[in-house]
Every structure is written in C-alpha cells, then in structure tokens.
C-alpha cells in the first residue's frame, strides 16, 4: 500500500530530487573545507543577488541555529528581544535564546502571530531605565507560526517604526519561501525590511540547510566568528551550499513553496461544509489551523499524522509540503467528512 502523506509538518517531507542531484554533483573529488569552495561561492552570490544583500550569506545547519546566530549578531550584551508570544524562539527552541545568547525575550500577545508598531510600543516604556533589559531588537516570523503572512506594507511599517525607535529587525524566515510565494514578491522585497534574516531550505525541499542573510557589511565581521563559536560552521560546506543553488535554479524554491501553499488552500477550501470544523486563522501559507471536535481528532489520527496545537484539545495544525499530492489532500478531506458529526 502506498504510504499516505503526513500532514504533521513540512519537516516530514524528504528532499527534492534536484537538491539530491546537486549534492551528488558536489560529491566530486576534493574541495577546500569550511566554505572555501566553488559551490559555496556560487550559492552565496546567488543569494546575495536574490536578497539584494550588500553584506554576506552564512550557511548553517538548522533554523534554530540561524535564529541564535542572527540574534547574537545584532544584540548588545544588555539587549532584549521583543517577539510575539507565539514566536518559535520563545516556544520551541528550549530556551536557547536565553541560554546561548543571554538575552531576555519580551513577549507580546499577538493573536494572529503578527507584531505591529502598536504592539511593539507596549514594550518600550521602560527602555531608558537601567533596572530593565534594554529592547534592542524585534524578531518577526515570516510566515508566522500560525501560517499568516505579513504584507510588504505591514513589514515596512514595523521596520520603519523599529528604526525610528532605535531597534533592529530580525526575521525568522524558516518558511520565507512560502510567504514570498503568497505575496508574489521577490525575496529582496521582504529582505528590505530586515537587518538580518534567515532563509529556510529544510522545510522547502533541502536537507539540513539554512542560510543567514546579513544585509549590511558592518554586521558581517561578528557573524564570521559567532558562527564558528556556535558550532554552525560546516567543514564540508559545499554540500549545504549546493542545495541552495539547486533551490535557486529556475525558481525551484518558489515552485516548491507555491505547491505547498496551494495544497494547504485545497485542504482549507474542502472544509467549508464540514459540521463542527472551522478554520482558526487565515490560510496564507502552507499551514491550516482548524478547530476540530476532540472525538474526530482521535478518529483521524488513527490513519493520519498531524498535531494538536497549544493547550487546546481541539485546535489542530495541518501542514502541506512541496511534495504533498493533491490525491492525498482529497483522501484526507474524505476522511474528515466521514468522521464529522452529522
């Protein structure tokens, strides 16, 4: 029997064939280690051009590693990070920001996962008091942990407010491709609203490959050393870099993300007439959050992989990936309809 597609996470997907082929082609003879190779030079140049980056690109292994590297590059010793309460750095990284960077996370409730200038301003009144950690950075996630996307206008408003307030901006871009596909914009359009941002490969067809995009040259120097100190410098970096060249070739990153987004929308559209099931957040990337009766969740999880979310017993997250087949979406919808209360 053909294995059904997991809706638990885009991390559950394998690698895109073009990515595997690029890694195989990079496995040709010897190459100088730690990024002094032609594959890293090529991929770095491709990403700098795509992001309109005047700084540098740093390849790392994990999204969490990219976040820690980005935060530590931008923060002063006494600096604090303003982030949404739902931010991955706050909920899913085992306290690494606090432990490894030594920063304080100033959380802001954001019902849809998105920060606004008004929400950020709530954390600024104590910024000149020596008894408080000093806000130095705002961390955004694009697309957010709830599958919502900042519009370019929303990003620009946050960026302008932050810079006017003496704050820098970091964007966790683990699913940046999905956001750019939804917004139908260039990667550089989003990057214009950040000082440093990550670009996720692993969730979009790559294998343990993430990139940190440092937009300005004056920040590059510290990242060079911090990456090594934080154990994110790959000796055989050609295999990481080659994956990004594959994703950039003919816009594969956008095609992969666009397909994942379309499958999430296909799933969401099929839920409109299911009794007792409702969409919890706008479906703007490759995630569908839905309120589902607990009894139905239990029945569905006998045959399908997906997660319940947060403390709620009835909120689920269904994720689509670059290789999610339409037929599996339709089969999942059929089971959702079949298990619904009539």
- Top CATH class of the largest domain: Alpha Beta
Q: What is the approximate shape? A: globular
User: What is the succession of H and E elements?
Assistant: HHEHEHHEHEHEHHEEHHHEEHEEH
Rg from C-alpha positions? Answer: 20 Å
Using the coordinates shown, work out and report the CATH topology of the largest domain: Aspartate Aminotransferase, domain 2
Distance between the termini: 30 Å
- The total beta strand count reads 11
- Number of contiguous helices: 14
Q: Describe the largest sheet.
A: 7 strands, mixed
Report strand order across the widest sheet.
1-7-6-5-4-2-3
Helix proportion of residues, in percent? 40-55%
CATH homology group of the largest domain: Type I PLP-dependent aspartate aminotransferase-like (Major domain)
> What number of structural domains do the residues give?
2
Overall average pLDDT: 96
Helix- and strand-based class? alpha/beta
Structure description:
The protein is of the alpha/beta class. The chain has two domains: 17-251, Aspartate Aminotransferase, domain 2, CATH 3.40.640.10; 252-339, Aspartate Aminotransferase, domain 1, CATH 3.90.1150. Helix content is 40%, strand content 15%. The protein has helices at 17-26, 38-51, 63-74, 88-91, 96-101, 117-121, 152-164, 176-183, 187-191, 220-229, 238-248, 252-269, 294-300, 326-339; strands at 56-60, 79-84, 104-108, 134-141, 168-172, 196-200, 210-214, 278-279, 287-291, 307-308, 315-319. The strands form two sheets. Strands 1-7-6-5-4-2-3 form a seven-stranded mixed β-sheet, sandwiched between helices. Strands 8-9-11-10 form a four-stranded antiparallel β-sheet. Helix 2 (38-51) crosses helix 11 and helix 12 packs parallel to helix 14. It starts with 16 loop residues before the first helix and ends with a helix. The mean pLDDT is 96.
């Amino acid at each position: 029997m053909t294995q059904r597609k997991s809706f638990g996470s885009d991390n559950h997907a394998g690698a895109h064939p073009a990515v595997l082929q690029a890694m195989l082609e990079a496995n040709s003879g010897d190459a100088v280690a730690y990024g002094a190779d032609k594959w890293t030079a090529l991929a770095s140049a491709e990403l700098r051009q795509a992001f309109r980056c005047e700084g540098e690109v740093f390849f790392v292994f994990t999204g969490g590693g990219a976040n820690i590297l980005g935060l530590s590059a931008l923060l002063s010793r006494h600096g604090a990070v303003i982030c949404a309460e739902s931010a991955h750095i706050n909920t899913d990284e085992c306290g690494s920001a606090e432990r490894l960077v030594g920063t304080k996370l100033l959380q802001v409730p954001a019902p849809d996962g998105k920060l606004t200038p008004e929400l950020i301003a709530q954390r600024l009144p104590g910024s000149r008091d020596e008894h408080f950690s000093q806000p130095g950075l705002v961390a955004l996630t694009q697309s957010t942990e709830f599958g919502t996307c900042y519009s370019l206008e929303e990003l620009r408003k946050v960026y302008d407010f932050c810079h006017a307030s003496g704050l820098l901006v970091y964007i966790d871009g683990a699913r940046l491709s999905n956001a750019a596909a939804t917004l139908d914009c260039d990667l550089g359009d989003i990057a214009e609203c950040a000082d440093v941002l990550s670009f996720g490969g692993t969730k979009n067809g790559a294998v343990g490959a993430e990139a940190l995009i440092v937009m300005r040259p004056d920040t590059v120097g510290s990242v060079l050393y911090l990456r090594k100190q934080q154990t994110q410098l790959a000796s055989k970096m050609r295999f990481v870099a080659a994956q990004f060249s594959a994703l950039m070739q003919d816009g594969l990153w956008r095609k992969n993300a666009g397909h994942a987004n379309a499958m999430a929308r296909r799933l969401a559209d099929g839920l409109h007439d299911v009794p007792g099931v409702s969409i919890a957040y706008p479906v703007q990337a490759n995630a569908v959050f839905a309120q589902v009766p607990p009894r139905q969740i239990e029945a569905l999880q006998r045959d399908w992989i997906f997660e319940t979310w947060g403390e709620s017993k009835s909120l689920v997250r269904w994720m689509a990936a670059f290789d999610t087949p339409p037929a599996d979406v339709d089969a999942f919808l059929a089971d959702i309809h079949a298990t619904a209360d009539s």
